[in-house]
Amino acid sequence: MIGKYKVVTLCGSTRFKEQFMRIQKELTLKGYIVISVGLFGHAGDGEVWEKMDEGTLTKTKEMLDDMHKRKIDMADEIYVINVNGYIGESTKSEIEYAKKTGKAVNYLEN
User: Is residue 94 within 8 Å of residue 101, measured between CB atoms?
Assistant: First the structure.
């Protein structure tokens, strides 16, 4: 918590860019400090990936995964954007990490 504001990190597949943007606005208006993804690899930002060789791509994805765990470290809780119940491998690992570090986990869909 920072001051009177809880901090929440958004997690989920980057294919759900529209939902990420909507949830970010909703939570902000409810008084949360929202930490989100830096890139939408599955729903835009293609120009970032298309010029990378395979080795650089792998290292960049590993860095982004680690950065997202650090964002979870900064949060009081995570909010999983699981449209139609979809939770991919990266998001599963983030949920496990959040639980292991004592963070509350909330979901868009039950």
Answer: no
